[in-house]
């Protein structure tokens, strides 16, 4: 298996692991997003309820009160570009 395919499968697994904690297994609730951020990005973990609200709002692009897989992948792509130093002005969104 290629490294890229293994990484893609890993991203799917991470999403599924957190989405399975509550209700709909195809979306992340606000508390599931908070837990994902706490565990996977401890340096970005929101410190207040207001920060959780703001981060969730930025992730929930269509405003349906959950984060689906495409929304999750969008933030992963943006964060990857930022870490790589190749983020365009569009990423700052």
Automatic annotation (TrEMBL):
Pfam families to which the protein is assigned, alphabetical: S_100 (PF01023)
Alphabetized UniProt keyword annotations: Calcium, Metal-binding, Repeat
Domain EF-hand stretches: 47-82
Molecular function, one GO term: transition metal ion binding
Coiled coil: none
Family matches, as InterPro entries: EF-hand-dom_pair, EF_hand_dom, S-100_dom, S100/CaBP7/8-like_CS, S100_Ca-bd_sub
SUPFAM superfamilies, A to Z: EF-hand
PANTHER family, sorted: PROTEIN S100-A1-RELATED, S100 CALCIUM-BINDING PROTEIN
Name under which the protein is recorded: Protein S100-G-like
Organism of this sequence: Gouania willdenowi (Blunt-snouted clingfish)
Lineage: Eukaryota, Metazoa, Chordata, Craniata, Vertebrata
Gene: LOC114480605
């Amino acid at each position: 298996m290629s490294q890229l395919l293994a990484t893609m499968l890993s991203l799917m697994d991470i999403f599924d692991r957190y989405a399975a904690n509550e209700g709909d297994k195809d979306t992340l609730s606000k508390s599931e997003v908070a837990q994902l951020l706490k565990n996977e990005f401890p340096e970005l973990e929101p410190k207040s309820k207001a920060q959780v609200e703001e981060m969730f709002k930025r992730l929930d692009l269509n405003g349906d009160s959950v984060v689906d897989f495409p929304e999750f992948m969008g933030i992963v792509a943006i964060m990857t570009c930022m870490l790589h130093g190749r983020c365009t002005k569009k990423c700052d969104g």
